[in-house]
Request: fold
Amino acid sequence: MASISVTTSHSPEQTTPVRPAALAEVLAVGTHLLVGQYRVELGSGTWWWSDEVYTMHGWTPGDVEPSLDALRSRKHPDDRARVVRAATEAIRSGRPFSCAHRIVDGHGKARSVVVTGQGRRDARGRVVEIAGYVVDVSPTHKEALERESQRAVTRAFVSQAAVEQVKGVLMAVHGVDDVAASQLLAEAAGEAGVPVQETAAQVMRALSKAGGVGPTAEATLAGAFAAVRPVARPRAHDAQLARRREPARS
Reply:
């Protein structure tokens, strides 16, 4: 469950009560997140922000007057049009909405936020107010990048380990040195049309399945290399390559 930091001081009476537990459950993350509130009265164009909204945009309360123009000035240029479309639809329909996008704070630092909210209608059914939350999810993005980086490092170590293992087998079976073993592996990979790391991984899997090289070491090793095959690519990947190869149309 996420740890949510929410301040309710200076909150106007009309603002929807804060429900940090519900937000944490929806976000399903285990990171401390900064959550702010906002409210805009559509008739007068009056905005209200909690202190957290100022903070995540790089302001302190009182630095700027809450407004759409102030928020727009801090939206990431690549996301600005999409956010405007989402806001326009929310004002028109009044239905609950959620929009993930990037902002750029006063120090030029990009942050990832999620804005949620919904409209309130008057007795005549007109949408007169939009209120909701702004959640700074930058920490979760950072954690995801760190996890992916660690996975990439792990994959690199595993791939290199397989290469070194196969070289060791080649050296033992054929009585060659490290340089010659590397050359044999590279030549086999080239003949199979498979990268060296993938070739080594497939050879080691084949040897493991065979229970090792055994008494017929050369034949077993040769069979493992002969079984190396290119890894099938997803069809979506082939489609992307095909599109890239298409000649540009005038």
The chain has nine helices and six strands. Strands lie at 4-5, 33-41, 46-49, 97-104, 110-121, 127-136. The first strand starts at residue 4 and ends at 5.
